[in-house]
Specification:
This protein is mainly α. It folds into 2 domains: about 1-100, Orthogonal Bundle (Rna Polymerase Sigma Factor, Chain: A), CATH 1.10.1740.10; about 105-178, Winged helix-like DNA-binding domain superfamily/Winged helix DNA-binding domain (Arc Repressor Mutant, subunit A), CATH 1.10.10. Helices cover about 75% and strands about 0% of the residues. It is built from 8 helices and no strands. It has helices at about 5-15, 15-40, 40-60, 70-95, 105-125, 130-140, 145-150, 155-175. Helix 5 crosses helix 8. The longest helix has 27 residues, at about 70-95.
Length: about 180
Amino acid sequence: MEIAEQELLEGVKNSDESAFKEIYYKHQPILFRYVVYRVRNREVAEDITQETFVRIWNNRSRLEPSKSFFSLIAKVSNNLCYDHFRHQKVKIQHQFKLPGMYKKNPETEHELSELKEEIWNAVNEHLPDKCREIFLLSRNEKKTNHEIAELLNLSKRTVENQLYRALKILRKILKNYM
């Protein structure tokens, strides 16, 4: 972790609003892309991203500046995504209260849910920050390598290399699912 980020997190822990704003503006775009990919809905993703930072601010006294901030916000947003999905599931179940109208294969649903969780854990915990950002832009926002290169002020070849690296890491981590 960068020393500057660690100092900012110390500031946030001590209720420094300008440090919080700087951390927010640095991490909000990446977190938003991460959440959009999970929930597939921009409005819901905006709410979850905002709520993540609200919770960080409300619990700032418990921040550990030496630990990865992105891992923390990813974990908080993951929990909020799960809450969202549970709420959606309840809404769907109430829409189809008549017996036999709403049948799912629980085993397949569980396996799919488990796979999604493993993928997101791998993306969050094993991909370096820049690699994760490029991967999410490519897979989540469907941006071309050229668009990503322009957006991040990188060469197209660097983007390609980072995507190759991300996929290689993910294949290795998720080999049991292939």
